[in-house]
Amino acid sequence: MWHRLYAGEIAGWRSGAHFRQQPAGVAGLSEDASLSGTLSSRRVYFLANPDQSDAEAVLDELKSFASSRCDVVGSTMGFDGRPAVAARADRIVVLGGDGTLIGVARSTGTNQHPLIGVNLGKLGFLAEFSVEELKRCFDRAVSDDTIISHRTVLKATVQRDGGIRDTSLAVNDVVIRAGPPFRIIRLGISIDGEHLTEVGGDGLIICTPSGSTAHNLSAGGPIMQPGVDAIILTPLCAHSLTHRPLVVERGSVIDIVALTVNEGTTAIIDGQVSYPLQPGDLITIRRFDTDLQLVHNPLYAKWHNLVTKLHWGRPPRAY
To answer: Which CATH class is domain 36-151+292-318?
Structure first.
């Protein structure tokens, strides 16, 4: 009997059944009728990626669906979330993919509003909802503040010759890449004013827990739950046997000095903004004052994306 039960559990894990949609009525996942009284007063703004061929049609579809359920205060084909902030939206529905959602979050700065990501792209790791899933649990996504995930955002400042050259927000990561002609670069790293190390190699990743499943994952860095209060430093192809990924407190101030760089060495923010670096440049990275607010899809368990989209923990035959 125990053998049969155990075998059934294993089959469920291999198939991903434990992470599929939960049935209606499961505690904590079903629609709460008490939310309906506040739903009509909720202000919702829609943003859609204009580069997605079907984005405009989906935008019209969801606006029509939502118009009788909440106060639709506007919509835009674009990546700028500031009009939604000006409209005092309670939720911003972002149609696109993870890059679209990150761009919108970066555009709103300190005025972070809860984002509902609808995946029209490929992976959809941050953009957790499909169109049909959002329709299915729209009332709860718009009204229930308990399913909002608060996530660390980084602030990166690039200084040259003692002056601030630029400042940017990073939802996922700041990546310093060696670039052409692809010789080893050397970076000096200090944390909270104390020198830590010098690392030589292809560069360095500094990422949030949300970004731990992006470039950091490919570089062998640790996977972290989004709510962990930490910042990750992962060397890229370090020319050393001792430089390994490091996790520090999210209140840490990280200073990186470009000691030796190439003509093409660049600091890249979330894959969206790039800053060419010169010898002596200083990149300071710290936690941003305001967290990203991301609405979690209540139809799935918290490990759903990691197991079913990245296939974490599965043997090769499960692919």
So the answer is: alpha beta
